[in-house]
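pinging the channel bc i need a second pair of eyes. not urgent but kinda urgent?? the chain im working w is below, pasted from the shared doc
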Amino acid sequence: MDFLKLKFGMFIHYNMATYVGQQWVDGYPDPSTFDPGGPVDTDAWADAAVSAGMSYAVLTTKHVGGFCLWDSAYTDYSVMHPDCPYQQDLVGQFVKSFTSRGLKVGLYYCWRNPGFDDGEKPDGTFKVLPPECDPDHTSLNEQIDFQKQQIRELVERYPEAFYIWNDALDPRIMPKEDAQAFIRSLRPDMIGSGNWWDWGKKGDRYLDLLISEKRHLPEGNTTPGETCWVLEDGGWFWEEGTSTIAPEKIRDHLNKANSRNANLLLNVGPDKAGRILPSSVGALTQLGAS
């Protein structure tokens, strides 16, 4: 598949971070914290993507904090935990909603990079992996094996996925050749991206694509890439008081990304009820009509 023919996609940051008011979750919030108050309307997400003229979407299946949006065999720290009010496979909902409308689906997975312990907070603050693989009592090799098992589980459970968006995956976890072999072992045609931990390296090729966040690839770039931008002016996850960027600015970002051999993956952050902001839905509709 020619990835660049897709041109425009929706990035969906929705997970435990939505509910705790942190872009990076500390520790392990109680599973009851993830409570949208009823079914999340993933059909509405997909309709918003269609209205904007998007071709694919990527959902944060597991982000910092380790909470899983599917019923993983490797952890009960998920939407199916007995204390979680949701009790539905959100990844499955996402896949069904988007594929039923002719959009392709990708799955985001955050790896635990050793760099998470390089900051000001104490080691182990950002768990990233579920309690069954808590970095406080597991080695890096054990963590890598656990993460590979979960990603393989995702691909096997959701064969519609064409793309694994690997966050914080870089040579500090495994050499590029090993990571590429792992992605190909999932399915020979599986596309994999590697978003470097090192900000200075972001935009360099690690797996199949160049990934850039809130900045464009260089003019004249010839390597297939993906530029990630935000539709709302807060973080990647929903925050109280967030406002929506004007659709004209997003159109400019889309045109620039496409002109530099990259798709634009535009992020939306559903709120605590799992709803995309009305202003963002409106902007996407205007964007599609322009």
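so The chain is about 25% helix and 15% strand. and The two ends are 27 Å apart (CA to CA). — does that match what u expected or am i reading it wrong
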